[in-house]
Amino acid sequence: MAERRNRLIGNSLVALAVAGMAAPLLAQNQPIEGKQGLGKLPNVRPASMQIKLPVPAEAPANPASSAPAKVEAKAEAKAGPLTTPTPAATPAPAPTASPAPASTTAPSSPPTMVIVPNPVPVAHWTLADAKELLAAIRGLAAEGLYPADYQPAALQAAIAAGEGEALDQQASRSFAWAVEDLRDGRTPMPARVQWFAVDPDQDDMTTEGLLERATTNHDVHATLDSLTPTYPDYQALKDALAATPKAQVKLRESIRINMDRWRWLPRDLGQIYLITNVPEFQLRLTVNGKAIRTYRTVVGKPGKTATPQLAEKVEAVVFNPTWTVPQSIVVGEGLGEKLIGNPASALKQGYKVTRLGDGSISVVQQPGDNNSLGRMKIDMPNPHAIYLHDTPAKALFNANVRAFSHGCIRTERAVELGMTMAILGAGMSQEEAVGLFEAKKYRRVVMTRTFPVYLTYVTYGTDITGKMTAFADIYGRDAPVAESFRQPRQIHTTQRASTEAVIKLDNPL
């Protein structure tokens, strides 16, 4: 029995103990989440500081335009006004779809929301602070950004004219734009296909608060440096960009857009979290920035069943899950009528079939080794009905390209992972976890300490061995990001995630 339990759990708990995390985290009565926020800032201005909306020094005709100063060589190649994205719908939970022959439920129709440009706060700038800002902007190429986007020529001219309103306006604008791109990413939201992960950094590290810190504490460079992602892959990409000759345009472009993708996530992902890179077909259990366990994954097929990018929390693990078969299969593929007319076949296949009062048929697959969710489901509630789960089709983990699912993440050794989550997140003992698994009965274990889980999309970065690698762009999501980098910088708006329709992907087959 002991040998079997060790096989089920694997080495996850040993690794956590070596990392020095298991005991202190189990003792904490709080979520295990990322640490954001500015913290307590010494000598900052009072909250009543007057914030003015600036009139751009170079006053483009379209107030939504943020095209860089044309005196810069790169800006000349990119020059031209840009418009603010048109108002669009924000994501919302999908309603239950009517039975249809399609393999997924219909997309929801969320309410519309007006998207407006972010206001730019204004503060007083000393000449010394403005000169430090100018130097910092000129160094942003190392972060995969374009210094010309932040109007260094206009800032230099304002510095030459001396302190006053013009310098305050220009320096505040250049600083705010640099903050937005370093903290939130340069890529405009419409170019972030199926990106539903809302980054909390702009709430926890507001542009206004950062401006106060930089101009009050006179630490402009340090303030901007504090915004770069802490995930090790970002620094690895930054080093790769510095080492890549400028003649290798395509490679440098790939590095830039993937550096930007890390800025779309929280700067600090947390102490313990799960992160999967969809094109890599791998999931990492990460402790203090180090992947202590990795798991092969099967992700969504390209098209309507492609896996969306999310940032959620593991709220529960389900031992021996049931699976409610979607109506698209029950009705669309005729499974309901076939099974209700042959109860012996339904029982043999592990299905519980019920004719409901309205005449519809409910088909629920019972727990067992042949259940489509396998023996473990890692629940991370979200409008897309995406989760991590086991699978009886384990041979698919041996394929090189593993895009076979209807959107959910089939996870290698999901039982091991789920037990580890239950032990760390619900205070369960190893014996209890194994007992629940071996009982072969449905049991949902709610986490008392939640874990972040990130579903990312990175096409160039370090693989699970630490080697810098290009991953196939299986969903074709690089092109819009790369194109946005070829265009002048767009004004950031109040849009926080993709406005594409939410498609509920509830079919693990």
| Tally of alpha and pi helices | 18
Low-confidence stretches: 22-106
Beta-strand content bin? 15-25%
Estimated radius of gyration: 25 Å
Class from helix and strand fractions: alpha+beta
- Residues in helices, as a percent range: 25-40%
What is the terminal separation in angstroms?
33 Å
Q: Can you give the mean pLDDT? A: 83
Biggest sheet: strand arrangement:
3-4-5-13-11-10-6-14
Main sheet, how many strands, which sense, barrel?
8 strands, mixed, barrel
Task: Summarize the SSE layout with pairings.
Layout: H1 2-9, H2 12-18, H3 22-27, H4 73-78, E1 88-89, E2 112-113, H5 127-138, H6 152-161, H7 165-184, H8 201-204, H9 207-217, H10 220-225, H11 232-243, H12 249-263, E3 272-277, E4 282-287, E5 290-300, E6 310-319, E7 323-324, H13 327-330, H14 335-340, H15 343-348, E8 351-355, E9 361-365, E10 376-379, E11 388-389, E12 403-405, E13 409-411, H16 414-426, H17 430-439, E14 443-456, E15 460-462, E16 468-470, H18 478-486
Parallel strand pairs: 3-14, 5-12, 11-13
Antiparallel strand pairs: 1-2, 3-4, 4-5, 5-13, 6-10, 6-14, 7-9, 8-9, 10-11, 15-16
Helix pairs in contact: 5-6, 6-7, 7-9, 11-12, 16-17
